[in-house]
Write the structure tokens for this entry.
Amino acid sequence: MMKKLTDSLWNFLQTKVKPHFTKGGKFENLFYLYEAIETFLFLPPEVTHDKPGTHVRDGMNLKRLMIHVVFALIPAMLFGIWNIGHQHYIALGEYVGLSEGLMDKFLVGLKVFLPILIVVMAVGGTIEVLFSVIRKHPVTEGFLVTGPLIALIVPPTIPLWMVAVATAFAVTFGKEIFGGTGMNIVNTALLARAFLFFAYPAHMSGDQVWIYLGEAADRVVDGFSGATPLAVAAEGGYQALKTFSYQSYGFWDMFFGWIPGSIGETSTLAILLGAALLLHTGVADWRIMAGMLLGGIFTAFLFNMFPANEYMALPWYYHLVMGGFAFGLVFMATDPVTSASTFTGKWIYGFIIGVVALIIRVLNPAYPEGVMLAILLGNVTAPLIDHLVIKSYISRRERQVSAIVPSPKTQEPVKESSHA
């Protein structure tokens, strides 16, 4: 039954609708808009054996690549939705148990998250379609990932109009101006967050932006604080986390994720589930993850050896579950478009991000989170890293070859044989 319905829809599109969008049709300028809808509903009809030349035949294409990332985001997304409601009821002094009021919490979170996601997808998708129509090139699937990423790295209280402005800015100036998906030099989702942070800092930092209260703002319990673990640690270090008066900010609390923070960044466990899928499918490179992890651990150990303030004394493993470190490590730094391409370059790229993230986080009291800026810095230096790695490889190969085959300038002239 379903196959018959699908075939009927396909035949209708091909015979009745598509001719109006092909060359000579009255909507030919909107052909790529039609193609985007057709590709979204059905597999592309093109196959490699219809075209001349040699082709790599592989089951992976851009759509499948992107959908793997979307699936990997689902655990962090579902937990983030639940945690919005969980933090909401903690602020009101109700439903503080993990399972008590499970659906109530989820529905509160869905009420907050769904409008953010819809605005992001509508604004970003519209801009991508407009640029595709103007440039006359197919609509790519890149925003299927960028949209959810933007929605997951903002506070739950962010005004929707700010989300729309930031998305429009990031998609236009972070991707489309460079040629679209695959041509951008920085991560589009992180550019949206950076725009929000510097344009509207009051809505991206402080203790009041991480807890959705809605119409219950006047019923917050006495003594409640919406401070994130990063803010608490920046204020008083390790001891402040252990003695925080209202809510437990121990290691396991942060690992499981029932803490205030950006929607999708609180649960390291949920993020690791997504990492497992990305690594299993080969979508993300383990070298970048390992490099960033080692960079963060190395820098944290250095701070522990010379603790000039309480934040520098924080154990290294706390940094890995605080703020956006885990989310950035799994979903942002591993972006195949904006990261390094060479194997050695991936290690260097990841290590630099880990080091810079902790330096900004610990040494800048006004900005206790450094992952976003560290990854953006890594994005713009990735081409240089690859260039230096390739140059080093070529130089090493030249030395190896010259050691085996002497240069013509250094060869001794061949003496003529007396028997000639």
User: Anything to note?
Assistant: The mean pLDDT is 82. Residues 102-135 form the longest helix (34 residues). Residues 173 and 250 are 40 Å apart (CA to CA). The chain has one domain: 62-385.
